[in-house]
């Protein structure tokens, strides 16, 4: 799997943001929209910060950008502080000129979840698929919320979160007991269809799972290891997250 290692997460994030900006610009030149798959969590925050800066200081426009987020807790009210809707507004959407109708985030209030998930997949296809999908990696090896046990051809669906994932989220919810048990997530199959997949990981506490994702056999025990089978996936790491790779 192609790897790019930067000294710091800040440097890595600037490089990723620059690639996104270039794609948005090139698509606009061709009169096309850029279809971007976004992640939440701590990892992509510096990427979004740089995209906001590029918008404010260097005229990067999001008018022709369409976004699909990977996942959302379920149930989750979009207005709640911990929702991924709130996260995306806070870190990106409220600060750029993206059109409301071009933003897609799984609906944590959907009543007919199965139907919602099928429609989410259809919407992505209608736009011709994702040009770039950003990913973080959880300590369970999850991408999106595809926990161990996820199938490589899985689509958008309702999943049960791993105990470790809920523990890692507990700080945001004031205790693990407040973290939802479930989430709606794009599947591994959904992610695989993206034209470029960029998995980012920073810091020493990701070093072990990064090593497993890159170097262990492909297995559902480490869902991110499926990315070894893709010919358009790459890992962007800081030095610490890469420190256990041989
Ligand atoms: C978030 C997501 C998750 C996170 C992962 C890492 O939309 O899908 O897979 O990317 O849990 O989270 P952080 O970046 O907070 O370490």
What is the number of strand segments?
Answer: 10
Q: List the total number of helices.
A: 7
The separation of the N and C termini measures 13 Å
Mean pLDDT: 98
- Largest sheet entry: 7 strands, parallel
Radius of gyration: 17 Å
SS-derived structural category: alpha/beta
CATH class: Alpha Beta
**Integer count of domains:** 1
Architecture (CATH level 2) name: 3-Layer(aba) Sandwich
Residues in helices, as a percent range: 25-40%
Strand residue percentage: 15-25%
Low-pLDDT segments:
none
Shape, per Cα inertia axes: globular
* CATH domain topology: Rossmann fold
Strand and helix order: EHEHEEHEHEEHEHEHE
User: What compounds are bound to the protein?
Assistant: fructose -6-phosphate
Protein name: Glucosamine-6-phosphate deaminase
Domain Glucosamine/galactosamine-6-phosphate isomerase: 8-229
Summarize the model shown:
By secondary structure, this protein is α/β, with parallel strands linked by helices.
SSE inventory with pairings:
Elements: E1 3-6, H1 9-29, E2 34-38, H2 45-58, E3 65-69, E4 71-74, H3 84-91, E5 103-104, H4 113-126, E6 132-135, E7 157-160, H5 163-173, E8 182-185, H6 188-192, E9 196-201, H7 207-215, E10 233-238
Parallel strand pairs: 1-10, 2-3, 2-6, 3-5, 6-9, 9-10
Antiparallel strand pairs: 4-8, 7-8
Helix pairs in contact: 1-2
């Amino acid at each position: 799997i192609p790897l790019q290692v930067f000294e710091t997460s800040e440097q890595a994030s600037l490089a990723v943001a620059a690639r996104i900006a270039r794609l948005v610009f090139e698509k606009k030149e061709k009169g096309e929209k850029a279809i971007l798959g976004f992640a939440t969590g701590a990892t992509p925050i510096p990427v979004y910060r740089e995209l906001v800066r590029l918008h404010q200081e260097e005229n990067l426009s999001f008018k022709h950008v369409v976004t699909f987020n990977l996942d959302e807790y379920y149930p989750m009210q979009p207005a709640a502080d911990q929702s991924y809707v709130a996260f995306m507004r806070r870190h990106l959407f409220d600060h750029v000129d993206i059109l409301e109708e071009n933003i897609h985030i799984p609906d944590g209030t959907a009543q007919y979840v199965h139907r919602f998930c099928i429609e989410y997949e259809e919407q992505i296809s209608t736009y011709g698929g994702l040009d770039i999908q950003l990913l973080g990696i959880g300590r369970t090896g999850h991408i999106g919320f595809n926990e161990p046990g996820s199938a490589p051809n899985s689509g958008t669906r309702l999943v049960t979160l791993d105990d470790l994932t809920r523990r890692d989220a507990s700080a945001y919810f004031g205790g693990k007991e407040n973290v939802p048990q479930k989430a709606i997530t794009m599947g591994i199959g959904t992610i695989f269809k993206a034209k470029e997949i960029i998995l980012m990981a920073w810091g020493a506490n990701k070093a072990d799972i990064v090593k497993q994702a890159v170097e262990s056999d492909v297995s559902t025990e480490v869902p991110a290891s499926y990315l070894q089978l893709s010919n358009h996936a790459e890992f962007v790491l800081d030095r610490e997250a890469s420190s256990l790779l041989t």
